[in-house]
Amino acid sequence: MSIFKRLFRIGKAETNSLIDKLEDPIKITEQGIRDMKVELDKSLQGLAEIKALAIRSRNENEQAKQRSEDYERKAMLLIQKGENGTMTADEADRLATESLQRKSQCDEDAKRSAADVIKFNEQISKMDTNIKTLRSNISKWENELKTLKARVKVSTATKKLNKQMAQIDSSSTVSM
């Protein structure tokens, strides 16, 4: 029974050793950086979409305000025509009322689109902050990766140097 425990412990130790060799910090860091860059690309695409929606809402707001002013002008003209006698007073009042109803509908559309613009601008500022944070994290981890690669090179060179120094001793010098 103890032989099986020992064999199991040896197998466990070898498995852990193999996993440690596979777990290369440089490769893991590189993969993390690639993942963050993919997230950055997605975030930039989302930011562009939200900016487009904000611009569209801003344009809708301006158009709704313009239509509202046009309907108000038309109502004023219709009332003037009714007073001048160019058009019957009842017909002018009816058309002016319709024009004012459309004006109020355009005013509501303008309010809604203005609220959308505010909402989109808030989302843009939040996403912009997140993108800046993500960019700084990517930069930080790229610098860490450079440091890690330099440490590996120094470690490898030190191992080689120590190995060469260990081979030079008094007996090997004499044999040379």
Short description:
This protein is mainly alpha-helical and 176 residues long. Helix content is 94%, strand content 0%.
Tertiary shape: rod-shaped
Largest sheet: none
**Cα end-to-end separation:** 53 Å
- Note the beta-strand portion: under 5%
Helical content stands at over 70%
Poorly predicted spans: none
Alpha-carbon Rg, integer: 38 Å
How do the helices and strands follow one another from N- to C-terminus? Answer: HHHH
Count the E strands: 0
- Taking all residues together, what is the mean pLDDT? 87
Q: DSSP helix count?
A: 4
User: Helices and strands: which structural class?
Assistant: mainly alpha
Structural description of this entry:
This protein is mainly α. Helices cover 94% and strands 0% of the residues. The chain is built from 4 helices and no strands. Helix 2 (25-84) runs antiparallel to helix 3 (89-167).
Features:
176 residues, mainly alpha, 4 helices, 0% strand, rod-shaped
Topology:
Layout: H1 2-22, H2 25-84, H3 89-167, H4 170-175
